[in-house]
Here is the input.
Amino acid sequence: MSDTSPEAVARDFCANFGPTYEDAVATCKRLVHQNVSWEAITSVGAPVESRDQLLGDLERARSTMGAEGFGIDLHHIAVTGNVVLMQRTDKVLDKNGDLLTSLDLMAIFRVEDGQVTWSRDYFFDSRAFVEGWAESDQS
Here is the structure.
């Protein structure tokens, strides 16, 4: 029997969400609950409420921006009960495996019975912070 602890599920998700589009879809189908609530940069204020909607978002990324692959670099992870907090860098790749964009974020998963049932992604852009810091330093 595989380890379905919340930490193991989160690590499995991060490790297998790519490098191809098909890998991402297969990982979602295996590790994301059908009735997931998922809010990310593409759904702020209106969380995705099913795995099918989440897969639709992946397809939209593929058709609108040429996302043919993904990667997740997991930097830090902390677990309390069934809640997992992760610091990650998510990557979106083109058909040649070249980087289209890279996003630094904090992510929270709630895992129940070996599947993600709730997720929130909080993106941050350190460049904006550095630019703001430099401006305040000059005053």
